[in-house]
Amino acid sequence: MQYKKVTHVLFDLDGLLIDSEKLYTEAFETVCAKYGKTFTWEIKSTLLGFQGYECADKIIETLNLPLTRDEFMDECQKVYEKIFVNVQLMPGAQKLVDHLHSKGVPIALATSSSENSIEMKMQNHKSFLKHFHHLTMGSSDPEVTKGKPDPIIFLVCASRFPDKPKPENCLVFEDAVNGVKAACAANMQVVAVPDPRIDKEQLRNATLVLNSLEEFKPELFGLPSYD
Ligand SMILES: [Mg+2]
């Protein structure tokens, strides 16, 4: 078999389960435009998978914005609070998460976001989050000492299942290049569902690359198939 059997599944959140990356882009564009700067896809593509303060630093430096990290993040926060109420699940996310949960496959969230950010983004998706055994939220978790592409978030996340699965028994779902690198560094198989603008060459280490979660076939990794 091309793929190894897994027992546990770890999910990234932004851009993978929820369509939030375009909202982050909208917020960054809004704040940068206030200072006469243009936030482009070229900049955006370097930010995927990083923690909030790392993104702020990169944007400020790249565009030479006259703001401190905290000032930039505060301005973005004001925009987020307006637009994140309406964040949608990505196609296939509900079906896959419901399916794995109903079949008793242990699933968890491994996101670089903070607890406050999750609270804001998932305010209308609380029942969806209840399907996850636990949520590992990198930006507010003292054990997650580095952002992706460091593997620590996935290793910490896996260690919090009661039966502590080995990395090779975990499957990761990611949309970002840095997330794929982090999963590979953790010695986990990884299904990439990237933004179509991402250069596929950067995802060459992914176990499988899909256009949508809707295309995923759980049985390829020894998980229960859809009925
Ligand atoms: Mg992501």
Automatic annotation (TrEMBL):
User: Which superkingdom heads the taxonomic lineage of this protein's source?
Assistant: Eukaryota
Task: Identify which cofactors the protein needs according to its UniProt entry.
Answer: Mg(2+)
Quick check: keyword Magnesium in the entry?
yes
Instruction: Please name the GO terms that the record assigns under molecular function.
Output: metal ion binding; pseudouridine 5'-phosphatase activity
EC number(s) of the enzyme? Answer: 3.1.3.96
One Pfam entry for this protein is HAD_2
Instruction: For this UniProt record, give its keywords in alphabetical order, as a comma-separated list.
Output: Hydrolase, Magnesium, Metal-binding
**Reactions catalysed:** psi-UMP + H2O = pseudouridine + phosphate
The reply to whether Magnesium figures as a keyword in the UniProt entry is yes
Against SUPFAM superfamilies, the record matches this protein to: HAD-like (SSF56784)
Q: Which family does it belong to?
A: Belongs to the HAD-like hydrolase superfamily. CbbY/CbbZ/Gph/YieH family.
Q: Entry's NCBIfam families?
A: HAD-SF-IA-v3
Name of the protein this chain belongs to: pseudouridine 5'-phosphatase
Where does this protein come from, organism-wise? Vanessa tameamea (Kamehameha butterfly)
Question: Which lineage do the record's taxonomy fields give for this organism?
Answer: Eukaryota, Metazoa, Ecdysozoa, Arthropoda, Hexapoda
